[in-house]
Design goal:
heterodimer, A: Ubiquitin-like (UB roll), Rossmann fold, 11 helices, 14 strands, elongated, B: Dna Ligase, domain 1, Nucleotidyltransferase, domain 5, five-stranded mixed sheet, 18 strands, 38% helix, FtsQ (chain A), transmembrane (chain A), POTRA (chain A), cell division (chain A)
Chain lengths: 334, 445
Amino acid sequence: MQSLKRTLLPIRFRPHLPAGQDAEFGAAGDAEATGSAIRLEGLTRLKSGARKSDPAPSRLSYRMQRWMLTPGIRLGLRIGVPFCLVFALGSGFLASEKRRDALNAFVADVRASIQERPEFMVKLMAIDGAGSNLAADIREVVPIDFPVSSFDLDVEQIRQVITGLDPVRNASVRIRPGGILQVDVVERQPAVIWRTRGGLEMLDETGAHVDDLAARGDRSDLPLVAGEGADKHVEEALRLLATAKPLGDRMRGLVRIGERRWDVVLDRGQRILLPEQRPVQALERVLAVNEVQDLLERDVADIDMRLGARPTIRMTEAANAEWWQSNKTSGNGQ
Amino acid sequence: MMTDLYQSQRAMRQMRQQAIQRGVVAILDVGSSKISCLVLRFDGSGRLSDDASVGSMAGQTGFRVIGAATTRSRGVQFGEITAMQETERAIRTALQAAQKMADIRVDHVIACFSGANPRSYGLDAEVELETQVVTEAEIGRVLNACEVPEYGAGREVLHAQPVNFALDNRSGLIDPRGQLGQTLSVDMHMLTVDSTAIRNLAHCIKRCDLELAGIANSGYVSGVSALVEDEQELGAACIDLGGGTTSVSIFLKKHMIFADCVRMGGDHVTGDISMGLGVPTANAERIKTFSGGVHATGADDREMIDIGGDTGDWEHDRRTVSRAELIGIMRPRVEEILEEVRVRLDAAGFDHLPSQQIVLTGGGSQIMGLDGLASRILGQRVRLGRPLRVHGLPQSATGPGFSSVVGLSLFAAHPQDEWWDFEVPVDRYPARSLRRAVKWFRDNW
């Protein structure tokens, strides 16, 4: 009978599983219902069951959760607390002198061990583009005890020291793979020789000092300038020298007069006095006159071009006397 | 007393505005069988478009549900809190779960409850306009001219909504502001409840470290969500069959004009089953939910149901009962509830409304065949209602049992004008009486 009834049952309850906090609640209720075996244990069990069956959070946990959901608190916990912790630990650790020194030593050790790896060591200096004298000078002004770590080399400072040398127009310094300190130098090329009371100097086209010279004959290919302040106007001097090319061998040099204008000095003591303004044009005029009238071949001591409107010629003593002589003859009424 | 009401309701309104400005508010429905909580985020979107045309969501998209939780209610009977501690714990449970889901802390809560003997009053007043133009101050004046009935000590006004304005002979004005006329009259619906219930609820919520930002009657808010727009407009009754109470609310012209509550609900059906079959309440609830009904057919005689039990007596625990028997237990109680609802509706004059749509909602409306029974008792036009769909509402909270909580969130986003939303005219203030005294002095000396 019972089994027949059972087969007639169309409705079967699915196990109803509540979700969320109610699940706990339901589970607690079930435990109470099925746990009939331990019912005799009495009050303590009942109490714990009652506590378990309440899904409500305690006031404390509720407040705690609300606190944790507050944006400020969350930010504080995420950033403020770790920061404070790290700060406190750090300052606690560094409070002792001994530990601080140990830390510094450790850091220095680590630094040194990295810097002194063979990959970072510079073993020699290669200098390109400099003559032997200059190379020796460079080695003198950059005193480095090789091998040295590339971390200890201040390449820019070395470059400035090398560029500070007179014969060096510019330089580039770099550390080449393979531990080589590569120095590429462009030397200054001497353009003129400047004779001063102190001796002979070679200047480049900008007037910068290149080197001293023992004798004029050592560099007879270079033109000569003299006079105070000549080194500041080397560019103009070079233009004048280029203009004076037709004079050829007769050219002796240029003299700076009064630190303001040039004289062209030729052999036989001849001079061309050039004006301050437009000296090249004045020289060209003289050369043009020379071309047609052989002015410089004559017995002329100075050609004064200082006043452009009135070029003046000073003749030599002998020519002067001769000129007087011939004039006297004709003055006799011949 | 009047100013007291004004102040407390205004404080709540201010709190609500503050909460909406902050963007997060909790919605709490304290029912007799479950407490459900939603966490809403107001993102400012979904307002009416610039040309004031209604979009696809009818302006109901200003918020999004970001957290939802439901827990078994404890300590609530007939929609009223009877055990404060228990209820507080249940509210805490629901709130904690909802906050956890939303992952945000909520500080303001808008609550609704169903019981506490709601009583409706119709108020009206008529004033002569001073300037022949209806201004906001004039509306405040006419609202204040309403004769407040003696609703008794220990009761408090929960809602007081102007439902109709009439200007001279034109009635049915929704918003008379700016119109011209001589006399302005207003009809107002006022709902009072026992103040102890409100106070208990407020205390429970305060104990949970929350601010009460609004309070509503659950019959009203379930009507807001379960009735569609034309039903609200043409006249309909929303019957929310809850656990401990059955709320009745009547809507006309998109305003609630009547609300009442029958102190019987689904729990009473469960109790009847429990008593009739001699099973625990949990079993009775389960049997009711899975195989309950109100219409017996021939097949139901053969359909046997395990009713279970946990006495340890095998014969006792293996009892079965036919579904027809179960229906025989449930039906009289359901009929009784519906009859009672019918009495309330008749008392409210529901049969005079142009449209007499009845919408059944609430957890109890899921009883199989209820709509057929209800149409016999209440009238032909009965349908089952489910809450409006709102953004982000989880699937588990879309059943008819959640119509009041969904309606409350709609209410929070788009509250109706209440009495206290209008400024009190100046002659209510004591400053005015002082000025009058000064004037009297000046006139007489």
